[in-house]
Amino acid sequence: MTQSNIMPGFRPALAYTLFYLGLVVLIPLSTLVFKSLQLGWGEYLDIISNNRVVSSFRVSFGTSLIAALVAGVFGFVIAWVLVRYPFPGKRFLDALIDLPFALPTAVAGVILATIFQPSGMLGKWLMSSLGVQVAYKPLGIVVALIFIGIPFVVRTVEPVLQEFDTTMEEAASSLGATRLQVFAQVIFPNIFPALLTGVSLAFARGVGEYGSVIFIAGNLPYVSEIVPLLIITKLEQYQYAGATAIALTMLLVSFLLLLIVNLLQLWARRRSGQI
Amino acid sequence: MHANVHVISDATGQAHFKALHDPFWVRWGLVGIAVGFIVLFLCVPLGLVLYQAFSKGWQAYWTALAQPDAIAAMQLTLLVALITVPLNTVFGVAAAWAITRFEFWGKSLLTTLIDLPFSVSPVISGLIFVLMFGAQGWFGHWFSEHDIKVIFAVPGIVLATIFITFPFVARELIPLMQEMGNEEEEAALSLGASGWQTFFKVTLPNIKWALLYGVLLCNARAMGEFGAVSVVSGHIRGVTNTLPLHVEVSYNDYDVIGAFSSASILACLAIVTLVLKSVLEWKQARA
After folding, report:
1. Which chain A residue is nearest to residue B182, measuring alpha carbons?
2. Model pLDDT, residue B1
3. CB within 8 A of B39, min separation 6: which ones?
4. How does this chain sit within the bilayer (chain B) (predicted)?
């Protein structure tokens, strides 16, 4: 492909790509950086260290982490079952996994709030049998984010499980390993990097998620107020500087976490000998 | 994709070692957990939309959908998708052509930048357009002098939606066209076909399913986007409410039928998307 190419249209295609990318994505995103630069350090730190802001960061990152881990466990089980076991209705269930991708987040939010509210189908049952209230509590945020996160885990683990070389399992078992040993020492280490990717994608999406969360969260400042909602609240009060500072911090923290996860993955791949 | 599944299950089925089989109770226990989870988290919500929407009968359902605000919301949602999807489709094809058919400096950076909108929170995607075009924004002053409204108006909604759905078509096409290589196109060109002829007669037939797939996902997100649109819309009933925003407004007004009748339309859109997605995946696997 490198040799001087007879393919036409390089200049117009690249020029249009760069133009449209700049116009639609890069220039708008740069406003966030420039607006933040207008703030002094003192002002920025004042906004960020505010108790309500710190609490919202704790709520957002905390609930996203728990939800991503839960989605990781269930997502792994679902991917395993879909790849390894034949059972009736499998293709239908497989197609349903993508529902959270396809369903508008506001619809998901309204439905989950209706199901889990104290008078709702599951809410009533959870309340009377376990004494747990889900909706309008931080737990509600976790439930919404599990819903959002599950396809990320399933769709990253599934292809890796499918391509997993079963001769490795045969080799291990012929050397006398038990099924549990085969799983823990042969299968899982090879799937782990993909699982980590899926969980981190679910986590990253969860931190920024808005639509599916606000209906079920209760949105109580200091308790169940997520960062995206606080940004909107600031905007509605015309506190542009505050909204910008919080948004930039959230972006930077998310990118930093993704970077850490990428490094972790590299480490996991090295350990399992995939590199 | 499905061929692989069979190979694997055949291999485990024929193997003689006990350690290759999961015990019966593990098998069915895990299937039970997976199916239970999917039914509880995915099937029940879908059913509930319809149950709530029709809880007061057909008549109430149609009355709710025939409200002027609901109709205006549907029209706006269609308008936004009609502008957004073609623009991002043309971009996706151009970007995939440039990236997969040529070598140039900074290519991997460009590919990363195209995916950027996926890693930005929807609320922040809305915020940046408020920062640009809002009353205190960069261009806000100029626009208000010329009496053009961007924020709390339709242009802002379109811009935010374009940003959110920007990568969909490009990211479906790039891996496919990379894998295809350009031998077929080079053959056509060396036989005297023009650039456009090559594109329409050689490239397009090869990428059509992936292209449709990207368009489908782009359209679903464009019609369903909530966070970003919510920031720039201003929630003016009958004017700047898209269908997802209409769901929110009705729900917050305790108008259950209004909220869930609109939600049922969006849920149908999601189901159609999933069905078409399965069909396209199947077509592409056979292509």
Report:
1. A1
2. 38
3. none
4. Multi-pass membrane protein
Locate A177 and state its tokens: 């390993």
Range A267-272, long-range pairs (CB < 8 A, 24+ positions)? A268/A192, A268/A193, A268/A196, A269/A193, A271/A189, A272/A189, A272/A190, A272/A192, A272/A193
Tokens of B272: 């159609």
Compute the residue count for chain A: 275
pLDDT of residue A2 exceeding 80, the answer is: no
Q: What confidence score (pLDDT) does residue B19 get?
A: 65
Q: Residue B265's closest chain A neighbor by CA? A: A107
Residue A10: pLDDT above 60? Answer: yes
How is residue B157 written in tokens?
């909604």
Our CA-based measurement puts residue A199 at a distance from the nearest CA of chain B, in whole angstroms, of 15
Neighbours of B225 (CB within 10 A): 30
Is A88 exposed, middle or buried (CB count within 10 Å of its CB: 0-12, 13-18, 19+)? exposed
Q: Shortest CB distance from A31 goes to which of B120, B131, B181?
A: B131
Report pLDDT digits (tens) over A53-91.
999 999 999 999 999 999 999 999 999 999 998 888 888
Cβ atoms of residues A93 and A82 within 8 Å? yes
Nearest to A111 among B48, B162, B224 (CB): B48
Residue B15, pLDDT score: 42
Q: What ipTM does the predicted assembly reach? A: 0.89
Which residues, at least 6 apart from A143, have a Cβ–Cβ distance to it below 8 Å? Answer: A67, A112, A116, A134, A216
